[in-house]
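Sample entry copied in:
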Amino acid sequence: MDPNAEDQPIAVARANISKLHNAVQLLRRVYFLTSRGTREAAVVPVDLGELVQEVGGADTAVAILKAHLNQNES
């Protein structure tokens, strides 16, 4: 596992779950799990995951962030 690569093949992540966990927990890294080069899921620090839940889930969090980014571009 290359800890500097944000994209991690699922099989590699599975084989290195402890390293992945430590990098997310201690270094606050975000990793994307890929299948055949396509991002399928993300592994994020727990506080970010809890905030996503708090606002109503991933779709709501994405809408909030997109609106915020669009507002800052104007």
Summary: The mean pLDDT is 95. Strands lie at 7-9, 31-35, 38-43. The two ends are 40 Å apart (CA to CA). The first strand starts at residue 7 and ends at 9.
